[in-house]
Amino acid sequence: MTKLLALTDIHMKPEGQTIIGIDPFENFKRGLAHAIAHHPDAERVILMGDLTNSGTPEEYARVGEIIADCPIPVTLMCGNHDQRDNLTAAFPWASTDDNGFVQDAFVYGTTRVLTTDTQFGPPFVSYAHLGQYCDKRFAWLTDQLQQAKDAGQNVALFAHHPPMKVGFAGMDQIRMRDDTRMAEVLKSAGVDVHFICGHVHRTISGSWHGHGFTVVKSTCHQMPLALENPDLSLSTPEPAAYGVILLTADGIIAHSEDFDLAEDDVQPSADAMPDA
Ligand SMILES: [Fe+2]
Fold this sequence. Notes:
Blueprint: E1 2-7, H1 24-38, E2 44-47, H2 57-67, E3 74-76, H3 84-90, E4 104-108, E5 111-115, H4 135-151, E6 154-159, H5 179-189, E7 193-197, E8 204-208, E9 211-215, E10 242-248, E11 251-257
Parallel strand pairs: 1-2, 2-3, 5-6, 6-7, 7-9
Antiparallel strand pairs: 1-10, 4-5, 8-9, 10-11
The chain binds fe (ii) ion.
């Protein structure tokens, strides 16, 4: 079994700035420290996009400050609140494909892990919160899926923007816009795919065209369960979380850990068991 740590929607801001009273720096620092302390056996930390709130060099520097001492290899992804050029300038070690998209692939056991770049553009459009997957990125994905098929691997497909609708009137409008093509490409590939996404700031799971999906909460602010409300800025200070993704020979398992609620000192409880 391989364990991956999935943290998303960090939304780093300049020093002294908060989001609905939450300090993104402190939340990410606390969440990553909790994840590392409780899962030192993880193979990789995947930061699934929206590393920053505005994509400025100052914000990336603050993310870099926190991940500098991470003892587990870190993979970066690009979200709608990032600026791809600033991200790759701040982290020259971030993996990019031949076309400059922040994408990477890893194989652990029988699973191929793909970390994809669903940001709109280039060119960068600061108000384009919509996700995009273009011809060049589909070519990369198609090749990766073929390699998975040839090797008999299943696929853990990390994407900041979910291609699927998840029931929010607002957020569904800014999902990955190329959902129809994505479904067709996966169907043609004929491999078993599980999506792990961010963007929505809420724990969600389900299936889409026969593929499983998991959406991981933000390390900062969350989306309230106001399904019909079209406002994209809805935010609530519900507990933040990170994902613990287990890759097994039988499939992919996704856990969510609310790091500020988690109890370290867990006791057995006879009350929880049926009476003898
Ligand atoms: Fe976000």
